[in-house]
Specification:
Layout lengths: L1 E3 L2 E11 L11 H18 L3 E11 L5 H17 L3 E9 L4 E11 L7
Parallel strand pairs: 3-4
Antiparallel strand pairs: 1-2, 2-5, 3-5
């Protein structure tokens, strides 16, 4: 939480690692993309905030095709559209062991708590 005088800027980040947080045997990539956004937005909403932006960074191994990544990003896009959140950036890199997704969500709230 960052205090910007009349508003609080809220930021949260989650990382999802294949075979730790998800199993692609049971989870379609489109669902995984959607889930990766929602787990972050829920943190913003839990702080009584309004989510505004996300960034997505992924590490992928060469076993994933371009079509597979399009499915993942289709889920990410669907979540952004449903919750009116802008997808403003991120990064991609290679991985030797599967898929890792990191999402950062940024939002704000007008509620400012005073510190006693």
């Amino acid at each position: 939480v960052i205090n910007n005088n009349s508003k609080l800027t809220l930021m949260t980040s989650d990382i999802l690692i294949e075979d730790v947080h998800f199993d692609l045997t049971y989870m379609p990539l489109k669902h995984l993309g959607y889930k990766s956004v929602i787990v972050n937005l829920s943190d913003i909403y839990a702080m009584n905030g309004i989510a505004k932006h996300i960034t997505v960074s992924i590490a992928i191994s060469n076993r994933f095709t371009q079509e597979a990544m399009e499915e993942l990003y289709a889920g990410i896009t669907l979540a952004c559209e449903k919750y009116d959140v802008d997808f403003v950036g991120g990064d991609t890199t290679s991985s030797v062991t599967g898929l890792t997704i990191s999402v950062t969500a940024i939002g704000s709230t007008n509620i400012v708590h005073s510190i006693i």
